[in-house]
Amino acid sequence: MEGNNGHSSSKSLERVLSRKAVQAGSSAPCKIWATGFLCGVCIMYLFGVALPPLLVPQNRSVYPPLRRAILWNFTLTEHDGVAATGESASAQGKIEERKRNYHATEARIVQLYNAWSSMLNTTSDEVLKSSDLPWPPHLDDCKLNVERNKRFDSYGDNGTFPHWTLWKGSLGLELLNQKYSENANQYRQYPPWIVGSDEENYPLTRRVQRDIWIHQHPPNCSDPSLWFLVADWESLPGFGIGAQLAGMAGLLAIAIKEKRILVTNYYNRADHNGCHGASRSSWSCYFFVETSSDCRKRAFELMKRKASWAEGSVKVKENYTSKQIWVGRIPRMWGEPWKYLQPTTEINGRLITNHRKMDRRWWIAQATRYLMRFPTEHMCGLLNVARHSAFGLEAAKLVLESIQNDSPKVGTTRTKSDIERLVWSDHKPYIPRPLVSMHVRMGDKACEMSVVGFEEYMKLAGNLRRRFPSLKNIWLSTEMQEVVEKTKLYPDWNFYFTNVARQGGNITMALYEASLGRETSTNYPLVNFMMATEADFFVGALGSTWCYLIDGMRNTGGKVMSGYLSVNKDRFW
């Protein structure tokens, strides 16, 4: 279909250009000009449409292929000037030269991409310095991020409050006067994992995140007055990651209301060989733990004492009913901020201004944001792999265009300037923007919500594009192979997706995840989840718990005013 459309378009263009040539008159210069121009158009069609796509690295998950786009841009920008000369021999020579240059450029792009690929598991500033490669703009320095975030997530050596300031990231850690941190009032500081102002997040997000952290991180975990709630993550068959997070949000609410420290325990989805050491079978494989190691140690010590159980200083999930966990009362210590949620969710062309579960929507967003506040080095690495697979070739092309050199090795061993090290290092990795994340939920979800086809999601994406004409990139997450196949019907969009086996029929999600294995069925959804939180826009289905949680993460991540286009509503609204 794509090839036929291109062929008919080229025929129409040739007819139009022929009429223009006739109208130009019978003079020799006009004929020469017309002949040269038509030759250029034919060459443009040959290289831009007729030729098959060039080979791309096999782990690349993007449609349409990047190489075709590069070649098309080349023909549009270069051949106009060639055709205008009207000298066919000279034009042919220039075309051949540019073809050679194009293939040389392609080789350099792939060379740099492959060099970055070989270093994915060791990406850090020191490694890249020693390799003499330019820094990949689409990758995070995972080691540096974790070291910095650990300082934000713990008290100082002398018991001082974490270095939360109005100075962002590494800048505040290194340059702000230490005396300011020692004398600062903890109740006037806000956590660094919240992006944007109060108006760009759910009501009271910065204050709530600070208060949850303080509640979960008492200065002295050996204080006998502290009580604990130790809870395994839900592990019943059929419980997805979304349901597990929603359940843990309910337990965090109980802990706060009862003035207990929540301590998460066994996490079945981290029980695989990708999670090493103490992080195996623990949430800490993917994200920072919910409380300090001292408090975790104290809670497990209390569990071994009969007196602790008798006096109630330690409880477990089984001490509470399902109703208390899943639909229990939301903490009221902050009042009722959900009554002031900005209506930025659209369903069927109308903004949702009120519904029966606004309090739960607000709280689950706060709890999810806290539990996923900082990715671990392992999770950061998974995101690097996904971004490299999807955006690595584009990033290599941008880098090579910027350095204008014959080799991808450009000698970057120079010492970084202060602004690079302390200011620019806090910027997010490169992704092609604007980017809309789209989660298409189908399959067995039909028993819980109204399921619609991929076409309805794309209609909403089209609505976004009418307002934002530069929008052409979609990060697609779905369990259905038929959805991936249908992306070929939308050649005006660039689709990116993780390279994973997908469902070919309506099997249950539990069976599908079992076919992938525990590690893959955990890694790729979490990658899609985090990518969705970083996208500029989101299209999904609020009837899906997963989309519900993505919406909450975006609304506590500075993206309230980006809005949310949903194909349906939550079934409990």
From TrEMBL:
Transmembrane domains' residue ranges: 32-55
Domain of life: Eukaryota
GO molecular function annotation: alpha-(1->6)-fucosyltransferase activity
Gene3D superfamilies listed in its UniProt record: 3.40.50.11350
GO biological process per UniProt: protein N-linked glycosylation
Keyword annotations from UniProtKB, A to Z: Membrane, Transmembrane, Transmembrane helix
Protein name: Alpha-(1,6)-fucosyltransferase
Organism: Panicum hallii var. hallii
